[in-house]
Amino acid sequence: MALDKPYLDIPGTTVFDTDQAAKGYHLNQFAVSLMKAENRERFKADPEAYLDEWAMTGDQKQAVRDRDFNRMIELGGNIYFLAKIGATDGLNYVQIVSSMTENDADAHAEMMLNGGRPPDGNRYRHEWEHRSGGA
Known about the structure:
By secondary structure, the chain is mostly helical. It has a domain at about 15-90: Protocatechuate 4,5-dioxygenase, Chain A (Orthogonal Bundle), CATH 1.10.700.10. About 55% of the residues lie in helices and about 0% in strands. It has helices spanning about 20-25, 25-35, 35-45, 45-50, 60-65, 70-75, 80-90, 95-100, 105-115, 125-130. Helix 2 (about 25-35) crosses helix 7 (about 80-90).
């Protein structure tokens, strides 16, 4: 019996639930491994060899290569774990999060200090599906 998950229809949000956790298990374990200095150095020295040690999907590995944090989240990544990847690249949290938006880090920080992004234009997924014919 499938669970009813009305929260999956929140505009602009991927909820990290048990299904996402299962999907992203290896991706998140990879990211957490970067907490150790020796693993960060190995990853920076030979990213492909280090990625090959992890049972991630090809899409997950490509998202890491691309540093596409939105895609990593879609593929089961937890932002708190994924931040370890950005930190390995020398990025702070504002830089990481702003890379997931249309803003640079300074504009993103300013927007957040001034009340955050307005909800104008946000749509529930079912509203977009209706508009585009079910896609």
